[in-house]
Design a protein that fits this description.
Layout: H1 13-17, E1 23-28, E2 31-36, H2 40-59, E3 67-71, E4 75-77, E5 80-82, E6 86-90, E7 109-113, H3 119-132, E8 137-142, E9 147-154, E10 157-165, E11 169-170, E12 180-181, H4 182-185
Parallel strand pairs: 7-8
Antiparallel strand pairs: 1-2, 3-6, 4-5, 6-7, 8-9, 9-10, 11-12
């Protein structure tokens, strides 16, 4: 007896919309992924980073301006739907915000805050999509390891530029114009 034909279909946006609001849903390579909302350490790291970058790069206060810095934007790139923790577009490439509730233009920079439950998804599934779409820079922030990996896309491959750890104060591409105090990402402050 012959096996029935494979009727498996890729996940659709309608599938994604059925995921409860208490979760973050993405579609990568036709597969639906749903993750719980971030835990406190994850949320602190993403919020602190956005707070550090928004004034100098989006608003031009104490920095060069010229960017949009957004938390959890929904990206529709090819058949994939991704939600990076933080992302940035140069205003040269994205002069104004789209009317839709999502972005079809890949960012210039993404930040993924990794944790034990999402690290594999972020590194193995999402990073290749970001590379395919030409995202120029990526930061992988790990609050448990207290580290920030800074990557740049060169000839379609991610190259590790630096790994910063602990209580460093860093200047990292593409935001070298200002310092980022890593302690803030871990929910701490200097005495």
């Amino acid at each position: 007896m012959a096996a029935p034909p494979d009727t498996k279909r890729g996940a659709t946006y309608e599938d994604l919309e059925r995921v409860p609001d208490t979760m973050i849903a993405e579609i990568v390579d036709g597969e639906l992924f749903a993750s719980p909302r971030p835990r406190p350490r994850h949320a602190v790291a993403a919020s602190a980073l956005g707070g550090d970058l928004n004034p100098p790069f989006q608003q031009g206060r104490g920095g060069p301006g010229g960017w949009w810095i957004l938390s959890e934007p929904e990206l529709h790139v090819g058949e994939d739907v991704l939600v990076p923790d933080v992302a940035g577009w140069t205003r040269e490439r994205l002069p104004s915000m789209p009317q839709e509730a999502f972005f079809t233009l890949a960012p210039d920079w993404v930040c993924e805050v990794i944790s034990p439950h999402n690290e594999r998804h972020d590194r193995i599934r999402k990073m290749p999509v970001y590379a395919r779409e030409g995202v120029r820079y990526a930061w992988l922030v790990d609050p448990l390891e207290r580290s920030v990996e800074v990557l740049r896309l060169d000839a379609g491959r991610w190259n590790l530029l630096a790994t910063h750890r602990g209580d460093e104060i860093v200047r990292a591409e593409p935001f070298r114009a200002v310092e980022v105090d890593l302690l803030g990402l871990w929910g701490e402050s200097r005495p």
